[in-house]
Amino acid sequence: MVSLIVKKAYNMAKSMDIPIIGIIENMSYTTCPKCGEMIKIFGESKSEKVAQEMKIRFLGRLPIDPDLAGLCDRGEIEKFNRNYMDDCIDALEMKLNIEK
Question: Model's pTM, two decimal places?
Fold first, then answer.
């Protein structure tokens, strides 16, 4: 079902001439606070396969992160210090530099 939604969003963006930098999988997993094990709540991901089929870059996975949710709730998002988005930021910066 998710791949269908992603493909629809992709097609809509293309029809509106919105550049597509890549795909990010949100709520991909969570990490057990006791042992650090990655728990794939929604099963195995198909995002990389979908990105490959669509010939666009897969930029990474974002976990369900209770610490991030807590910071958002307190209005302290600027205190978030994890690197989930590094690949996405690199791709966006590269895209912006190419267009200059």
Answer: 0.71
